[in-house]
Every structure is written in structure tokens, then in C-alpha cells.
Design a protein that fits this description.
Length: 65
């Protein structure tokens, strides 16, 4: 999994898989979900991220066992 914030375009991208994107769907305005050919979610994009996410430049990841 990879996450990237691009300050120039104010876009937050989270990539769950390296699979090719076959289809994209704007689920909510400014939130784009990317799917592979089998319909699996492979990523998401948040447009105007600084307006939608409190700290777009800060990321915390936690694995709970």
C-alpha cells in the first residue's frame, strides 16, 4: 500500500495494489475510487484534499493484531 499527497495539485492518492486501473468511479464529489478488471478496489483519490482532510501532509499507519 502506498499513500502520496501532491501539494501542487492538492490531491491525496492511496494505492492498495499495483493492479492496472480498469475503471474509476466518483463515489462522492471529489472522491474517486479505482477498480481493477475484476472489480477489486485498487486505489482512491481525494481531490482538494486540504479542504477535506484535516492534515493531508500527515499520515499514520497502524497494524492491529
Amino acid at each position: 500500500m502506498k499513500a502520496k499527497y501532491d501539494a501542487r495539485t492538492d490531491t491525496l492518492t492511496v494505492q492498495f495494489s499495483d493492479a492496472a486501473v480498469a475503471e474509476s468511479d466518483e463515489d462522492k464529489p471529489g472522491v474517486i475510487l479505482d477498480y481493477d478488471a475484476a472489480g477489486n478496489l485498487v486505489g482512491l483519490e481525494v481531490l482538494d484534499a486540504s479542504q477535506r482532510i484535516a492534515e493531508a501532509r500527515t499520515f499514520e499507519f497502524q497494524v492491529v493484531e
